[in-house]
């Protein structure tokens, strides 16, 4: 079962994701996968980290001043550091019976070569997955595997209620799981 959270940049997708994930952890569920929170210094966004949802381990995904030839907007992607953590977290997701959370599937994450093949294998799994998808994601191999997912488009008017809507849907499914 796949739950997809999407919506325009900055609308509150990661906040919805985190509330759902936090609720599931409190409920005692095993979570694998990762999130990619922004890092701010003095109020200014300087980059993004990857945080493993299972272990809490962190690595840099991209930094504004990184000396990297792989770039997304004004950020340099730290491919080898990010690959290591993405590979570890998604291999654990593949091996265990857990709920998989990924925030997000977007251009920056897709610059990490290990990400897409592992993601495609995870999308074939019969487990519960909660995925934040960039609204302009155009990768057909990924999108075709999400055709039967429950899609939630986050807007300013539904973002406060969205976590409980998604949690209710999940609780229903998990009871029959
Ligand atoms: N329900 C809400 N009410 C008020 N502010 C919110 C709410 N949800 C998110 N925000 C604020 O909006 C900003 C963007 O939130 P968030 O990072 O969750 O969005 P996003 O859609 O994941 O962004 P991005 O596209 O950059 O990944 C944050 O500053 C957050 O505090």
From TrEMBL:
Give the residues annotated as coiled coil. none
According to the UniProt entry, its GO molecular function terms are: ATP binding; ribonucleoside triphosphate phosphatase activity
Q: Which CDD domains match?
A: RecA-like_Thep1
Query: Entry's InterPro entries?
Result: Nuc-triphosphatase_THEP1, P-loop_NTPase
UniProt keywords, alphabetically = ATP-binding, Hydrolase, Nucleotide-binding
Residues where ATP binds: 7-14, 99-106
Q: Which reaction does it catalyse?
A: a ribonucleoside 5'-triphosphate + H2O = a ribonucleoside 5'-diphosphate + phosphate + H(+)
Q: Which family does it belong to?
A: Belongs to the THEP1 NTPase family.
- State the protein's purpose: Has nucleotide phosphatase activity towards ATP, GTP, CTP, TTP and UTP. May hydrolyze nucleoside diphosphates with lower efficiency.
Supply the name of the protein. Answer: Nucleoside-triphosphatase IMZ38_06755
């Amino acid at each position: 079962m796949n739950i997809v959270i999407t919506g325009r940049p900055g609308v509150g997708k990661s906040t919805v994701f985190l509330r759902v994930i936090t609720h599931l952890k409190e409920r005692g569920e095993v979570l694998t996968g990762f999130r990619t929170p922004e890092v701010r210094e003095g109020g200014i966004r300087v980059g993004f980290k990857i945080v493993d949802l299972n272990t809490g381990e962190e690595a840099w995904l991209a930094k504004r001043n990184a000396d990297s030839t792989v770039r997304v907007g004004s950020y340099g992607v730290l491919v080898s550091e990010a690959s290591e953590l993405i590979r570890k977290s998604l291999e654990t997701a593949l091996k265990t019976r857990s709920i998989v959370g990924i925030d997000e599937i977007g251009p920056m994450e897709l610059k990490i070569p290990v990400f897409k093949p592992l993601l495609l294998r995870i999308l074939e799994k019969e487990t519960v997955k909660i995925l934040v998808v960039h609204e302009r994601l155009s990768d057909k191999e990924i999108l075709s595997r999400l055709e039967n997912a429950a899609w939630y488009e986050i807007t300013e008017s539904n973002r406060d209620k969205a976590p409980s809507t998604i949690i209710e849907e999940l609780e229903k499914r998990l009871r029959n799981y």
